[in-house]
Specification:
The complex is a heterodimer of chains A (about 60) and B (about 140).
Chain A lengths: L4 H7 L4 H8 L3 H8 L7 H10 L4 H5 L5
Chain B lengths: L10 H31 L4 H23 L9 H30 L2 H31 L2
Helix pairs in contact in B: 1-2, 2-4, 3-4
Classes of the chains: A mainly alpha (about 60), B mainly alpha (about 140).
Chain lengths: ~60, ~140
């Protein structure tokens, strides 16, 4: 699943470790999500979106070409 | 209550461990049929045949977890890696003393208990070192 978590995190001026700590996961999990190597649960997607002040659409919806 | 919470709070880790357990259970199930066949057609000790699938389950889970690189999920820098290496060594020394002492109370033999402590300490250190190396390599790519 393609996502824009990395861009949103950088915009919010957070490191992977800070974001991980805020939502209660490990930094490895954040890294895997950003590299599209792990599909997070809906619960985790919501937690990420809330922390980064974005909607699920902003982060996880693929743009139509 | 979610049983996966026993494996930590991180959902990726929880999912991976659950996956290893399912794989191990499947392997145990298949090997159990082989053991039943061996029980019927050979005269191997039944208790030994019964223990093999259990041991296989346990070792499969441990080895998969060790090689997956998910144990040290927050080790990203050279500094954190060195710090964790030292911590693993300290932990192995503790295991050596604790197991050696526990064995000494049972067997009362200094040589045997030292040997038992040494083997368990080395084993613990080796497993943690491999796991740490795998985790660090995995994290380096993220």
């Amino acid at each position: 699943m393609v996502n824009k978590v990395k861009i949103a995190r950088i915009e919010k001026d957070l490191t992977q470790a800070q974001l991980a700590q805020k939502i209660g996961v490990t930094r490895q999990t954040i890294g895997l999500i950003e590299k599209n190597e792990y599909n997070p649960s809906l619960q985790l997607c919501v937690a990420i979106a809330k922390t980064l002040d974005k909607t699920l659409n902003d982060l996880f919806w693929e743009d139509e070409k | 209550m979610n049983i996966l919470n026993f494996f930590g709070q991180d959902e990726f880790k929880q999912q991976q461990i659950a996956r290893f357990i399912v794989e191990a259970a499947l392997l145990q199930f298949i090997v159990s049929f082989v053991m039943i066949a061996l029980y019927v057609f050979t005269s191997i000790e039944p208790l030994f045949l019964m223990l093999i699938p259990f041991a296989l389950f346990l070792f499969y889970c441990i080895i998969r977890y060790m090689l997956s690189g998910i144990e040290f999920a927050d080790v990203f820098t050279e500094q954190e890696y060195s710090k964790m290496k030292k911590r693993n060594l300290k932990f192995a020394i503790w295991i050596f003393f604790f197991n050696g002492l526990a064995f000494f109370f049972i067997e009362k033999s200094l040589l045997e208990s030292s040997l038992f402590g040494l083997i368990s300490g080395i084993l613990m250190w080796g497993m943690n070192t491999i796991s740490l190396k795998k985790s660090y390599k995995k994290n380096e790519q993220l």
